[in-house]
Write a structure and sequence with these properties.
single chain, 13 helices
């Protein structure tokens, strides 16, 4: 009975995390009308950092030696995950829709698999290669809007390409994090990398302001947007995801990432003037199929290994 209850809560936490992250694309698309991308990202992480500080001071003191020893790794995590990924996504949302961005972003597991080959020395299996190729086709279909002529003439929305760059950033963050997952404490390293990310974003935001001369707009709406990205998307979703993974396991949890673009599409259709086009449905379906193919057998294999370990 307890196991069933734990699984139910685990599923709910994973759904909640992806619901918040899906909404983050829509909120981000609205938010770039109020704030320039670098400043938007900076304020997001300042809010998250300040909210975490009362709970993290003791943990940081306890883990300081480990954190300082791996400061270069934390810098990489800050560049790729904190400063890089979010800023590029917000930059991309100035040029593309939240629907397109969320669907292109769903290829993250595939880029993680590719980078894991080079960084973690993992083997690329045949079904993973097939899934990657299928998803690449799906992405090309989306960014070309299903038109061969548009693809050949390279009349592609730059925002979709920026999202791909952001996905590579997040995949790098994930693989680096995975490599040091047995060394770095999760919450403390997240907190420390957030602080480093803020230090990186401050001068970049100043340069952005001087070059773009775009003044941020502070209203009740923009304050709500900052609260969403600073608390819900940065902290609540992060904790919900990790709690869900701890209850049902990383292998099963990975499948839930496919819910993110679905939630993003629902929120975009409900709260913005975006429309869902046939090429997005077809391309998104191809991408999802590729992700499922590349992960299905791997998940079974991992589950089998875990079962053997637990029975040993």
């Amino acid at each position: 009975m307890l196991d069933g209850t734990n699984k139910k809560y685990g599923f709910l936490m994973l759904i909640l995390a992806n619901m918040i992250w899906g909404g983050n694309f829509v909120i981000g698309r609205i938010g770039v009308d109020y704030f320039p991308p670098l400043l938007f990202s900076l304020m997001r992480w300042i809010i998250a950092f300040l909210l975490l500080t009362p709970f993290m001071v003791k943990k940081l003191k306890r883990d300081w030696n480990i954190i300082w020893e791996h400061k270069r790794i934390l810098l990489l995590l800050a560049v790729t995950g904190v400063a890089g990924y979010n800023t590029i996504i917000y930059f991309a949302l100035q040029y593309t829709t939240s629907i397109n961005a969320s669907v292109v972003n769903s290829t993250t597991p595939l880029f993680i698999a590719i980078l894991a080959i080079f960084i973690l020395r993992e083997k690329l299996l045949a079904h993973q290669a097939a899934g990657i190729l299928l998803s690449v086709f799906g992405i090309l279909y989306i960014i070309s809007k299903g038109s061969i002529e548009m693809f050949l003439s390279w009349k592609i929305n730059a925002g979709d390409l920026y999202v791909l760059a952001a996905v590579i950033m997040w995949a790098s963050y994930s693989v680096i994090g995975k490599k040091y997952s047995n060394v770095l404490p999760v919450l403390t390293s997240f907190y420390a990398s957030s602080f480093i990310g803020i230090l990186l974003l401050v001068p970049l935001s100043l340069i952005e302001y001087l070059v773009m001369e775009k003044t941020p707009v502070f209203t009740l709406t923009s304050a709500g947007i900052l609260l969403y990205v600073g608390f819900l998307a940065s902290i609540m979703a992060f904790l919900s995801w990790n709690f869900g993974v701890s209850l049902i396991g990383a292998a099963k949890a990975g499948v839930f990432l496919n819910l993110l673009p679905i939630f993003a599409i629902i929120f975009a259709l409900c709260f913005t003037e975006e429309k869902l086009y046939l090429y997005q449905i077809i391309g998104g379906g191809i991408v999802t199929l590729g992700v499922v193919i590349s992960s299905k057998k791997t998940l079974r294999f991992k589950n089998h290994v875990q079962e053997n370990k637990s029975s040993a």
